[in-house]
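Handout, tutorial session.
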Amino acid sequence: MGRRNKPGASERGGLRSFYLVLALVAVVGIAALGYAVAGRGGGAVLEPVPVEGLNDPRTLVAKAEGIAMGDPSAPAKLLIFNDFQCPACANFAAQITPFLKAELVDAGKLQIVYHDFPLAQHRHAFIAARAARCAGEQGKYWEYYSVLFGQQGRWSARPRAPLSDFEDYAAQVGVDRDAFGACLRSERYADVVTANMQLGQQLGVDGTPALILNGRRIREWRGYSDLKRLIEAEAGN
């Protein structure tokens, strides 16, 4: 075999660059793995997660399970895409939802289905959506929904995820704090909330609260009276 020549300066520089890139890839890979383990292995999941199969419409609809209020056979169905950190959603919850329930849902004219749509600019909205679903495990979704919106100004201002606040609210509404905390500080419902977000995107949701009445997006309404009129028209009244 012939004698191998020593690499020149340019070749040595190229090798150094190659190994630097290789080392960088390894570091990034380890960091990504560490993030995945931290996010999936016991820490509270605060952001959307990868979910397989959501490109299939049937899988997406099944996974994006909404929270329903009212008779599923009601002639009018209102989908509401909701963000717990959205001030307009808090106003809707306080000023519109109680009247919808009292006058239309309880009368069998309307079913409301809430879907989560935490906006990117609201850093605690994703974990808040998960928290409400954790409370729903113990049959307290709507009670927790009311407290989250009622205390929105407090927890939404926290610099970090307000896990302790959310656990306090769970105790206030009669949810077992330990069971709730275990749910909150895990990845549970992260896939469901993520699927809700993707469903909203597929339906053209670009803000909250977004209303879809019997498959039609409702944009121009100026208060409860307008919304009630639209719903009653769909219900045949």
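The second record follows below. Compare its token runs with those of the first.
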Amino acid sequence: MKKLSRSFSLSLVAAGLLASGTVSAESLAIINATLHTSSDQGVLEGASIVMNDGKITAINPSDFKVDKVIDAQGQIVTPGFIASVNQLGLVEVGAVAGSRDAGEDKAGIDFDASLAFNPRSSLIPYARKGGITRDLITPYGGDSIFAGLASVVDLSGSFESVDKKQAALVVHLGERSKGSRAFTLQTLIKKLDEHQTKASKDAKKDDAKPSAEDTVMAKVLKGDIPLLISVSRASDIVELIKVKQQFGVNIVLNGAQDAVVVKDRIAKAGIPVIISAMDNLPGSFDSLHASLNNAGILEKAGVKVLLTVGGDASHNVYQLRYDAGNAVSYGMSQQGALKAMTSNVADVFGINAGSLEVGKAADVVMWSNDPFELSSHVNKMFINGVEVSTESRQDKLRERYTTESNMPRAYTK
């Protein structure tokens, strides 16, 4: 594509304080970039993107005034990636109980783990190195099948990082170490039926005061909050499709290693699927169809696919782009893999980010090369239009132990 010429004029804007006491982000433009928009615009070469007041304000404008211009010199620019289904900021060291805040034995429908989110966790800068700018954090719950509420956070490090509470109600179904999977599915159906009936009765009472659980379940039944359900076996997925049809709720499948068996039913029902592209061996009798090909197979079947990092996701969110690259090598389209960690996640959980479009949050990442390549790295990252660092604890440790110093090699003071 022929590069477009642009006339650029700069204006100096005095830095002032907002009513909140924070300094407003400077307006800026990235020019001569290869924009992978993760939208209907596709890939734009020799393009420009303008950011102001935390939002994307223009794509390829004929003229603009900004505080700062960055010449990308053809480098790839993508939306910031959105991770999902992990406890980033809710856990620091998995083996240290005092640093784990994502679960509670008594947790239920209204459990809000985001109250414990730590935006200064050492895991967050490391995640940013992988191009991650936002995340759907999820509780792992307790004794109930209802683990609690998922939340959307940005990775800016700000103490106002929790962008959206009640982004989903997390539910765990499927195999049980004790008892029957039938009981857990029955529990879900009864809870939905109970609150559907209750909502109908309470609508006739002017003085009815809903509980926290009532409020959450009312939003679930209206379709405002999706049910994020961890499930793997195909027969369980078929039953959940029936639940969606019966109650009209929005369902998102998580794990779903057997989803390929019933992919056409899932696509027809319009149910998104969150999977790890690296699930290649059965972890149980529920996941006999785990395969590296699954992301590509589901995409081709018309299923909206979201990619997550399997295993210890909280400490390995960084590798999401590598997993996406593997999905591409096993049959997923490159743009499909990009959408699976950007715009698809945003669409499913109502996040105003995930694509390079006017009005979206200015979460923008400039790459040294193809982000799916192992050797590529983040050159610049902006969250809400503000440039953030990708220096992590690991970088500081490397510098400490590879730099000559007058201090002893293992000094403690």
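Points raised in discussion: The radius of gyration is 23 Å.
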